[in-house]
Amino acid sequence: MLAAAVFVCLSFVLPSLTGAPWVPSSNEIVRKMLLLSKVKPGEEVYDLGSGDGRIVIISTKEFGAKSTGIEIDVFRAFYSKLLIRLLGLGGRARVIWSSFYRVDLSRADVVTVYLLPETNDKLMPKLERELRPTTRVVSHAFRFDWQLIDSDDGARIYVYNPRPSASPPGVLPGVQDRPT
């Protein structure tokens, strides 16, 4: 009994120590995150700290993405895996029980996060190193120290490209020089 109580307590404490406490985004916010990051059918969406799997499920069901959640809490990982199976999304959605620091993110087209500012800061080098130049990172509530691609300040959703294509010095990615 004591072991079970310790296990349950760790289930709530461990995510707080390694990334963020579990505070689920509403389905409305999830849809705005996916719309703002322009998720297309067949793209790979990775949700870091996927909690109950709602981003994985909505991105798969409503946007046609192949989605991967990464969750360190064994209970939430098991719950979301079960939910994915019950919804028949098993071939297109999955949840990995692990720390997102240990999972290769190089296949991602879109990475979603709702993490604390200090976790975002710690995660930045991994994202810059592993993500492709076309990958978008969408954050709910807390910003990264990158140039924004798009945002919804009212909903506190921010979209970034941590590895923009090479541009000449002084030219922002996606902005072309105009003859004067």
Layout of strands and helices, then pairs:
Elements: H1 2-18, H2 27-36, E1 44-48, H3 54-61, E2 66-71, H4 74-86, E3 93-97, E4 110-113, H5 117-130, E5 136-140, E6 148-152, E7 157-160
Parallel strand pairs: 1-2, 1-4, 2-3, 4-5
Antiparallel strand pairs: 5-7, 6-7
Helix pairs in contact: 2-3
Description:
With 180 residues, this protein is α/β, with parallel strands linked by helices. The protein has a domain at 36-155: Vaccinia Virus protein VP39 (Rossmann fold, 3-Layer(aba) Sandwich), CATH 3.40.50.150. It is 34% helix and 19% strand. The chain has 5 helices and 7 strands; from the N terminus they run H-H-E-H-E-H-E-E-H-E-E-E. The protein has helices at residues 2-18, 27-36, 54-61, 74-86, 117-130; strands at residues 44-48, 66-71, 93-97, 110-113, 136-140, 148-152, 157-160. The chain has a 7-stranded mixed β-sheet with strand order 3-2-1-4-5-7-6, covered by helices on one side. Strand 1, helix 3 (54-61) and strand 2 form a beta-alpha-beta unit. Helix 2 crosses helix 3 (54-61). The protein is globular and about 40 Å long. The chain starts with a helix and ends in a 20-residue tail after the last strand.
CATH architecture of the domain at 36-155: 3-Layer(aba) Sandwich
In terms of DSSP E residues, the strand content is 15-25%
The dominant shape is globular
Label the structural class.
alpha/beta
Q: Number of helical segments?
A: 5
In whole angstroms, how far apart are the ends? 75 Å
User: What's the CATH topology name of the domain at 36-155?
Assistant: Rossmann fold
CATH superfamily of the domain at 36-155: Vaccinia Virus protein VP39
Secondary structure: number of strands: 7
How confident is the prediction overall: mean pLDDT?
86
**Any idea of the CATH class of the domain at 36-155?**
Alpha Beta
* SSE succession: HHEHEHEEHEEE
Instruction: Give me the Rg, rounded.
Output: 17 Å
The strand order across the widest sheet is 3-2-1-4-5-7-6
Helix content: 25-40%
Give the low-confidence spans: 2-16, 167-180
* Main sheet properties: 7 strands, mixed
